[in-house]
Write a sequence for this structure.
């Protein structure tokens, strides 16, 4: 019997059934996709890091190195499992020519390595340790993705020719957020080009117990070992690998949660309208003695069928799309060992959606208990009372067109009915605006100030060279004379010893200079301005256990110097552990200098960048836009894709839900429509009334959605962004696209949907609905 | 006397192709300006269908209906709506007032569509009509807060607001008790006395007896017509008797 009832019911309301099913399918698909992606991403990262045997602790170091002292330390420290020192030959991008094009515009520190002996292997795209022959070169996989190199391309370095034999995955430096990239060459070739660049050392350790990493770090620092360069630990490697795709998954999860919510609302009002339609039958069923649970079963069965069909379809669809979304993960990190788990998690996610729908329908159907059989049979409809807007009278209306007035009045009088549509529109606005704002924010120039980089036009890096201070002065002199430079700042990074509890000391890299010229965004406090102030990066503040206002003690040439923490900021550069201060110091060696400059005419950035590059070939000079593109490029593009997808999804949702809602409304209001027509209102009058209703609800929805997006949404997006290390931030809004364009697109969808949805109002025959 | 509606050989059928059933089987009717007519007949005889066909509310399958000299079947949906709004109006058995509006708003609604600027004047007129039918105190009430008789009076006020040439009533007293029904008929008589034509469809001999011409229908045809002098408040029983005799004669 159920089968027959369900079949009849579905064939009578094809559009509604289909729409509900589509929503369920999309919700199920997104939930299943995010489950699959999460499992795959974490699995792929784990697999990659396991296959490559990623170091647990890595200290980059340039300058002299005492390997004997380092191996002694490794032997003495019982937790060290393995230890090695790798060489990394840093070569200027301009000197690396791939297929005729140099990497001069590339902001990464490109360099060469040989395959490692013990761990930290460079892997090919099948996950195997690469065995490179003479004359061959393996290129970082990122350059395959962006089309810089292809297998078979010729690479020329220092006049020596190589052939690209393949691409490599580097568990340390895969991510664009890691600033260095390793090319792999054979031992012989490495020896041949060694004199061509600066050698940097990667001092690497693997520990027996990874959880002791903190203690090991402290021990390494207090031992006073080589530390002229960033220090990176296993968890940071993991995070760097996870960020880009992690962000995409976060966006998908956010959207899937919203779509599930919309699917619920969709079900709610189709169900309520159905109950309204069947009011008399329900009353009759109750009157002849059927139990509420029996009546519920009939309705529940239909939704169980829709939910099951939708979930199955969603699961199938997730298979179609997952390949596309997994592409990036697969390319950078390879397959996952637990892909079968992914399937199981996908199925669990889908089952969860199914059960949630059944539970929800069951909850909505509880209102059967409230239906009085006698009332239902007599009146055939629920005796809803018109509520609200009593003072909004037609007789007092001089301003609005009568049809518009009637539309608005109806919304105000039946608020609870329109609440569902309002909620859908609020959510749609939310879905459109949040990813857009997120995209605008991370692609805006100022976003890097959340990342520990000042917002300027041009960035000049002087590192891995001698006489850094002299070279900096040379550049400064040129900048001084250059009329097109409006301001600049020289920031010099040096390592100092900071005193920790129990008399331990830890190396801390401090960037000295005027931090007020190109300020970064401080999550707490402000930039250091006085000699005795210091600002710490979030990770450093966390590790040192310092808050704003605390005092930190440095040991400079044996003397203690107390500095007050003036602020904390987020940073992803140099392993996230940095500090900023203004005091002058002549004691410690300069590790590197960065000069930021701003141009009075922004259009000159490109020209200036190449001019300075030609002139100062010891420095790495990049336009900041380029720097952003290359550092966050893939992240920005995945968020960008997600934001466009979100707009499409939101518009489809708006269109379908409005259409559905209007069809319901017309069915519910048949009688009033017939009355209106008998009074001489034309079909276009009636359409105008419905358009006024939906536009009125839409405007309220957009206002609420925008407010919500800029408050709650910002908090949510902050949570996503904080995975970068940025702890607090404000949206950068592009009002033209975020508000005007979205508004227009939503109004168009709502109008189209309303006009199509209410077209059936024209067919309502007055005589049939009013005849006695 | 000028005719406002001329229905010529009207055919209206329901059902599918080969099982068509003519609800109106070649009916011809004329209604004069200011005339008070009624249509009687058993259920299913086609009397309501005739009213809807003559008012242009329903399309027809044969014949022709002219309203005020214009062929209704040649008019667009908009032109028909215009006529309904300005030249004719309806009173139904169930008071068809809109739930969201109060009594006053319901009454002024049809007239306000075109003349929003003169809303004050229209409201004034509505108040006068409400006073005439005795519901002045109800203007701000919700339609759920008044009785069926009061709703029907409001419905009549709404029908009169745009000064129509003719008012159609489909069993306007059908849902009322006899006292209310009598009061409503008094109002219809008054409206007619003011010069508006009225066409009522009814089962009730007492209602029909108020009118000056009664058409009797059976099986989609007008089978008989009874003319009475204009009702002057006298000899109601005699008029009802004449109607019932005619009904019996026709087997209704």
């Amino acid at each position: 019997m159920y089968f027959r009832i369900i079949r009849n019911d579905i064939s009578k309301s094809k559009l509604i059934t289909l729409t509900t099913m589509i929503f369920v399918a999309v919700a199920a698909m997104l939930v299943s996709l995010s489950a699959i992606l999460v499992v795959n991403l974490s699995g792929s990262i784990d697999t990659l890091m396991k296959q490559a045997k990623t170091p647990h602790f890595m200290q980059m170091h340039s300058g002299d190195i005492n390997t004997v002292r380092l191996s002694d330390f490794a032997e003495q420290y019982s937790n060290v499992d393995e230890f090695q020192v790798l060489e990394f030959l840093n070569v200027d991008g301009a000197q690396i020519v791939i297929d005729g094009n140099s990497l001069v515009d590339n902001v990464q520190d490109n360099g060469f390595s040989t395959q490692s002996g013990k761990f930290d292997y460079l892997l090919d795209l099948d996950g195997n340790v690469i065995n490179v022959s003479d004359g061959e070169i393996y290129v970082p996989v990122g350059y395959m993705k962006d089309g810089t190199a292809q297998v078979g391309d010729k690479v020329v370095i220092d006049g020596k020719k190589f052939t690209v034999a393949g691409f490599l995955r580097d568990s340390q430096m895969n991510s664009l957020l890691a600033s260095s990239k390793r090319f792999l060459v054979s031992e012989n070739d490495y020896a041949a080009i060694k004199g061509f660049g600066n050698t940097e050392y990667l001092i690497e350790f693997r520990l027996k117990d990874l959880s002791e990493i903190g203690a090991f770090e402290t021990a390494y620092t207090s031992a006073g070992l080589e530390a002229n360069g960033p220090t990176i630990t296993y968890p940071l490697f993991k995070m760097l690998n996870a960020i880009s795709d992690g962000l995409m998954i976060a966006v998908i999860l956010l959207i899937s949660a919203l779509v599930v919510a919309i699917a619920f609302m969709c079900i709610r009002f189709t169900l309520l309208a159905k109950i309204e339609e069947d009011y008399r039958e329900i009353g009759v069923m109750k009157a002849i003695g059927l139990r509420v649970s029996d009546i519920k079963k009939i309705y529940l069965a239909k939704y169980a069928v829709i939910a099951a069909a939708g979930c199955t379809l969603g699961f199938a669809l997730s298979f179609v799309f997952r390949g596309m979304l997994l592409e990036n993960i697969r390319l950078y990190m390879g397959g996952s060992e637990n892909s079968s788990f992914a399937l199981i998690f996908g199925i669990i996610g889908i089952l969860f959606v199914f059960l949630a729908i059944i539970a929800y329908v069951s909850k909505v159907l509880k209102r059967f208990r409230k239906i009085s059989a006698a009332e239902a049979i007599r009146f055939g409809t629920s005796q809803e009372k018109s509520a609200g807007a009593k003072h909004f009278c037609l007789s007092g209306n001089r301003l609005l067109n009568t049809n518009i007035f009637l539309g608005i009045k109806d919304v105000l009088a039946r608020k609870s009915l329109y609440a569902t549509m309002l909620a859908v529109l609020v959510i749609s606005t939310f879905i459109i605006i949040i990813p857009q704002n997120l995209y605008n924010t991370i692609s805006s120039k100022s976003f890097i100030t959340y990342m520990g980089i000042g917002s300027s036009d041009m960035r000049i890096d002087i590192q891995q060279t001698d006489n850094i201070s002299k070279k900096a002065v040379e550049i400064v002199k040129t900048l001084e004379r250059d009329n097109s430079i409006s301001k600049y700042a020289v920031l010099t990074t040096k390592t100092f010893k900071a005193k920790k509890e129990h008399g331990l000391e830890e190396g801390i890299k401090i960037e000295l200079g005027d931090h007020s010229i190109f300020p970064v965004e401080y999550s707490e406090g402000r930039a250091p301005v006085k000699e005795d102030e210091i600002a710490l990066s979030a990770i450093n503040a966390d590790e040192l256990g310092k808050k704003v206002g605390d005092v930190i003690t440095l040991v400079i040439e044996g003397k203690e110097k107390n500095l007050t923490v003036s602020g904390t900021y987020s940073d992803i550069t140099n392993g996230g552990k940095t500090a900023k201060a203004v005091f002058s110091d002549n004691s410690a060696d300069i590790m590197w200098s960065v000069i930021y400059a701003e141009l009075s005419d922004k259009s000159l950035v490109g020209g200036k960048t190449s001019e300075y590059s030609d002139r100062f070939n010891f420095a790495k000079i990049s336009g900041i836009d380029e720097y952003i593109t290359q550092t966050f490029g893939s992240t920005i593009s995945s968020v960008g894709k997600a934001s466009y997808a979100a707009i499409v999804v939101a518009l489809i949702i708006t269109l379908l839900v409005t259409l559905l809602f209007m069809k319901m409304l017309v069915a519910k209001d048949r009688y009033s429509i017939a009355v209106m027509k008998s009074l001489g209102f034309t079909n276009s009058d009636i359409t105008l009334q419905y358009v006024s209703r939906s536009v009125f609800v839409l405007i309220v929805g957009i206002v609420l959605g925008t407010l919500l997006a800029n408050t709650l949404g910002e908090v949510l997006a902050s949570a996503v962004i904080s995975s970068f290390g940025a702890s607090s931030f404000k949206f950068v809004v592009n009002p033209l696209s975020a508000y005007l364009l979205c508004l227009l697109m939503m109004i168009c969808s709502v109008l189209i949907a309303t006009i199509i949805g209410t077209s059936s109002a024209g067919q309502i025959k007055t005589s049939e609905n009013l005849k006695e | 006397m000028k005719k406002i509606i001329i229905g010529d050989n009207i055919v209206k059928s329901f059902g599918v192709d080969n099982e068509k059933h003519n609800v109106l089987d070649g009916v011809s009717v004329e209604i004069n300006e200011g005339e008070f007519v009624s249509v009687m007949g058993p259920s299913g005889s086609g009397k309501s269908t005739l009213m809807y066909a003559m008012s242009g509310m329903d399309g027809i399958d044969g014949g022709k209906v002219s309203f005020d000299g214009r062929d209704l079947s040649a008019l667009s949906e908009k032109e028909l709506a215009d006529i309904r709004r300005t030249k004719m109006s309806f009173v139904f058995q169930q008071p068809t007032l809109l739930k969201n509006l109060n009594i006053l708003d319901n009454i002024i609604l049809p007239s306000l569509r075109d003349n929003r600027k003169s809303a004050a004047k229209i409201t004034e007129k509505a108040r006068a009509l409400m006073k005439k039918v005795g519901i002045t105190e109800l203007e701000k009430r919700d339609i759920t807060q008044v009785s069926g008789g009061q709703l029907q009076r409001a419905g009549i006020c709404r029908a009169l607001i745009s000064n129509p040439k003719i008012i159609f009533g489909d069993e306007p007293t059908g849902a009322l008790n006899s006292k209310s029904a009598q009061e409503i008929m008094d109002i219809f008589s008054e409206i007619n006395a003011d010069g508006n034509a009225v066409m009522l469809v009814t089962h009730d001999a007492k209602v029909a007896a108020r009118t000056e011409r009664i058409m009797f229908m059976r099986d989609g045809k007008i089978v008989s017509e009874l003319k009475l002098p204009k009702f002057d408040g006298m000899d109601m029983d005699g008029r009802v008797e004449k109607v019932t005799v005619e009904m019996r004669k026709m087997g209704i």
User: Anything to note?
Assistant: Chain A has four domains: 1-52+243-380, 64-227, 400-446+633-772, 466-617. The first helix of chain A runs from residue 2 to 12. Residues 400-446+633-772 of chain A form one domain.
